[in-house]
Structures are given as C-alpha cells and as structure tokens.
Amino acid sequence: MKFLEKYDFNKEEIADFLNNSPKKLIDAIKDNKKLVCENIDYLKGLGVTNYQQIFLEYYDMFLMDHSNFVEVFSKYEPEDLIEKLNKNIRIVEYL
Amino acid sequence: MALKAKLDLLSLSDEERAKASGKFLATLALVSEEELSEVLTYLSSQGVQITNAREIKVLADTKAVMAKKFSILGEIHEEGIYREDPTLISRNAIDIYKKIQYCKQNGIAYKREDGTYEPFLFSEAAWQKTFNRESTVVSDVAKTTAGDSIVTIEPVVTPVLEVVEPVIPVAVEPVSEDHIDIKEYMMSSDDEAELEARTTNFAAIRKELEGQLAELDALKNMSFDDSEISFTDLEPETYGMGRAA
Fold first, then answer.
1. ipTM of the prediction
2. Confidence band (pLDDT; 50, 70, 90) for B79?
3. Do A61 and B30 touch (CB under 8 A)?
4. What is the pTM of this model?
5. b/e map of A24-50 (b: 16 or more CB within 10 Å)?
C-alpha cells in the first residue's frame, strides 16, 4: 500500500487501514491500484481536500469503475460539493 | 449471481439500497452467493442486521473470521459493540479487546451512561489523544508497507502508569487462564503466520500488564515510616513534578 503515501497518507493511517479492513477488500485495492489511484486523483483534482478521510471511510467505493466514480461526483457544483464534504464526509452516501 | 440479486439478500430500505447501488457494491462483487448467505445467516444469529449501505463492506469478511471476532469480544461480554455499529466488525477485534481490558484494569470508563461505547476504543488517534500515550495495543500488530510487502512494526511499549490522569485500578478482574491460549480466536485475517505473531505478542502484553498490576498492588500495600524519608531531600524530578517558578 505504499502507493497511498503518494497521496499524503501517513504511515500510521495506512497501518490503521490495513489493520482494520477486510482482507478481501485490501487485496482488491492492491490488485486494482491503478483504478484506485485514478479515482483518488479525480477527487484530488476536483479540489476535495479531505479525500484521505473519504478513502479511509469509504475505501470500497474507490473500486468503482472510473467513469461511474466520476459520474457520482460530477453531478454537483464543485465548490458546493467540497464545502459539504468538508463539513461531513457522510454526504458521500447521498451523492 | 448478479449484484442486484446479491443486494436483494440484504434487508436494506429503499433509501439505503439507492445509496448502495453503484457506489458500495464492490464487496458484493468479491464474495460468492454462498459466502454471502453464510455470513448473513451468521450475523443474523448474532442479532446483527446489515441495514445501512456503508455497512456492506463488513460482508467481505468470511464467516470464520467473523465468528472469531465475535468470540474475542464475547470473552469479555462486549460483542454488543457489533450490534451497536456493524461497521466495527471490519475492525481488528484484538485491538478493541485489549483497549477494553486496559480500561477495565485501570478503572477507565469505556461506556457512556447511555450504554454506547467511547469512540477511543475504535480509533487509534482518539485513543492516543485521550490517554496521551502511544498505544501498546495497536502498535504491536500495526503494519506498514515497504513496497508491496507488509512488515511488522516493532512494538512501542510505554508503561501503563504514564496515563495523563492518575488512575487507581479498581475491581481488577483476574485474568483467566482461558485467555492465555487464545490462538483459535486471535486473528482478523486468514494468515496463519500473522496469527502466530499476534498470539505471541498478545501473551507478552498480558504478561506486562499483569506485572504492572502486581507492581501497583505492591505500591498500594506499601507503608512509609516518616522518619526514614524527608520529602525535602527529594529533587522535583525524582517524583515527576516540575519545580514551581
């Protein structure tokens, strides 16, 4: 999971993630590293500053096909979306 | 089996189903219908229902792994944690177990008045913030990555007595011998080598805690003869206090 360090996850966060997530999902994330990176990059590019927090809580969502992932977030005005995500990441569930 | 059919096996409301559709289906793609049915039946037998889209990820664990997690917390009658918040099933049960044991042994409340659990049990960051100490709990099993291979971090053991607020252990429960050989319970993954390592680590931590408790008991029973010790002879650093300016 070293690739997560590129996205400013610290070692403790990565360790906590590995220690507290189902093995099958961890393996799937490792096996689909490129897809996961694409999806993280998209959020980061959109200006979502708390993307790490979103990943750590909703990591399974980052295994979505990239075009579907983009579709989930692109329906909203970026500024408004970023503001709401900063207030409460659980808004992700309602997008 | 199509994802939709697997989704039908869950008891999600229309709203939660809508939330899950598209976004939280990766787990269902990773498990077979048989595994899914088995896990759902097991959870139901434990009084746990998956009713929220964000809880679906816990279904990526096998029934065997889940049963071990329930057994670990069942040992201390705290498996209700999972009924309160099913997403916690995906967390490392041994860490939660150790944190609860630490709280019990040090007289620290880990349940609120309304019966809900303190969040510090489920977050290493919250644990450290609350107790201002490096956890002996997670660090021994924490993993990080070096390339793509997982390596174990050396445990960082800080004496239990370094908790910010002085605590006096009350109602310390004797540690049952049953807890010593918990190999069959101790894992959140299917990796046997990891299981062995955790078993060893866990025994060492228990031994350390028992030693510290014995030390505390000895301190409690200690009596001082005033004629032998003059507190003016003690430098502030000797008893851990800074000198007033």
1. 0.89
2. very high
3. no
4. 0.65
5. bbbebbeeeeebbbebbebbeebebee
